[in-house]
Amino acid sequence: MLAYIIRRLLLIVPTLLGIMVLNFVIIQAAPGGPVEQMLAKIQGEAVDATARVSGTGSSEIQGSGTAPQGASASQNSKYRGAQGVPPELIEEIEQQFGFDKPAHERFFQMMGNYIRFDFGNSFYRDESVVDLVLEKMPVSISLGIWTTLLVYLISIPLGIKKAIRDGSRFDIWSSGAVILGNAIPSFLFAILLIVVFAGGRYFDLFPLRGLVSDNWSELSTFEQITDYFWHMALPVLSMVIGGFASLTMLTKNSFLEEINKQYVITARAKGLHENRVLYGHVFRNAMLIVIAGFPATFIGVFFTGSMLTEIIFSLDGLGLLGFEAAINRDYPVLFGTLYFFTLLGLVMNLIGDVMYHIIDPRVDFEAR
C-alpha cells in the first residue's frame, strides 16, 4: 500500500500541472482581461449594464467604445478599447498587472510561487489571496459541514430501510421523494424556499441574507447559536435536497447487492438474528463505497456545490469569492484558489482510497 500511495502522490504533480495549464490557456484566451477592464474604466465604459440599457438609444451604446479623432494610441493595439489611450499608459497598466511578460513566462513564474504557497495579492482588493480565503472560509465551512452531516444522517438510514423493504409501499413513496430531489436543482429549491419562507410571498420566518444577524455580538451565547442556525436553515436545506437523493440510492443499491450474496444466505441459514445479519455482516461491506467516498463528497459540497447557494442567500463565502474573481478577471484569486483546492481535492481522493483499504483490508490497490 505504501508504494501505491507514493505513486499516487507523484501522479498528483502532472495532474495538477495539466489542470493549471488548461485553465490558464482558456482564461488567457477569454476577452475582457484585467488590462482591458482597466482601459474601459479609464475611458468611462465600465458602467453598470442597467445604466447602458437605460441610455438614450442604441447609437449611444454603439458609439461608447469609439476612439476620438486624432487618438494617439495605435489602432492595431492588442487590447479592445485601447483606442485613444496613450501607449505609455497601456505599458504602465501592463506592468501593474504583470502582462508586460510573455504568457509562458507568467505561467512558470506563477507556478513557482504557488509551489511555495505564495498566492500573491488580489488585483482589485488590498488583501492577499490567503487572507481573502481565510476571511470567506467560515461561510463555506458552515455550509459544507452541516450539509454533509445531514446528507449522511438522512441518506444512510433511509437507503438501508429502502433496501430492507424493497418493493414495499414505503419504498415506492420514498422513491418519489428521491426522484423529486434528483429532479429539482438545489438553486431552484433555494429560490422556492425564499419565496415561501423568507418573505418572498407567503411567510417571513427566516432571514434572507448573511451568516448571522447584525447585532450578533450583543447576543448571549445561546442566542448566538440560535441565530447562527436560524440563518443556516434555508441555505443548508437547499443543498441537502440535491445531495441526499443520490446517496440514498447508492446506499440502497449497495445493500441490495450484498443482501443477495451467498454469505448472507448462509448466515440466515445458521439461524442468526436478522439484525445481526444486516448490521453485523451486510453493513460493513455495503457501506464500504459510501463511507470511503466521504472525503470526496465533503470537498464537493464544501467548495463546488455552494456557489449558487451563496449568491442566492448573499453569503460571503468561497463560492461567491470565486464567482466575483471570474467576473472581474482577478487572476491571483482565480488561479490561487484553483491551485489550492484542486490540490486538496486530489489529496482527498487519495485519502478516500486509503479509507477503502482501512475499512476493508481485502481491497488491495497495490495488487490491482
Structural class: mainly alpha
Q: Let me know the CATH homologous superfamily of the largest domain.
A: MetI-like
CATH topology of the largest domain, by name, is: MetI-like fold
Instruction: Give the strand content.
Output: under 5%
**CATH architecture grouping of the largest domain:** Orthogonal Bundle
Shape: globular
Helix tally equals 17
Order of helices and strands: HHHHHHHHHHHHHHHHH
Estimate percent helicity: 55-70%
Number of domains: 2
Count of strand segments: 0
Highest CATH level, the class of the largest domain: Mainly Alpha
Low-confidence stretches: 46-76
Distance between the termini: 11 Å
- pLDDT averaged residue by residue: 78
Largest sheet, in brief, is: none
* Cα radius of gyration in angstroms: 27 Å
InterPro entries: MetI-like (IPR000515), MetI-like_sf (IPR035906)
Keywords: Cell inner membrane, Cell membrane, Membrane, Transmembrane, Transmembrane helix, Transport
Region (Disordered): 55-82
Domain ABC transmembrane type-1: 137-352
Features:
single chain, 368 residues, mainly alpha, MetI-like fold, 2 domains, Putative oligopeptide transporter subunit permease component of ABC superfamily, transmembrane helix, transmembrane, membrane
